[in-house]
Design goal:
Radius of gyration: 16 Å
Strand content: 15-25%
Oligomer: single chain
Distance between the termini: 41 Å
Order of helices and strands: EE
Low-confidence stretches: none
Strand order of the largest sheet: 1-2
Number of strands: 2
Number of helices: 0
């Protein structure tokens, strides 16, 4: 069913949802080269370790 609606199907990806949200919309996500996820490992890292202070909102 989803493959029939290729151009009408969108996937919204949100980064930093709790602060400076970045929203990316992807049309026809079925055509993307998806890989299977066998296991998800949770990691936690302070934002200061990734983004310099000047880039924060």
């Amino acid at each position: 069913m989803i493959e029939c609606l290729k151009q009408e199907n969108w996937l919204s990806v949100v980064y930093n949802g709790a602060s400076c949200s970045e929203i990316h919309r992807l049309q026809n996500p079925v055509a993307m080269p998806w890989g299977s996820v066998v296991r998800i490992e949770p990691y936690h890292l302070e934002v200061d370790m990734i983004k310099p202070r000047s880039e924060k909102c």
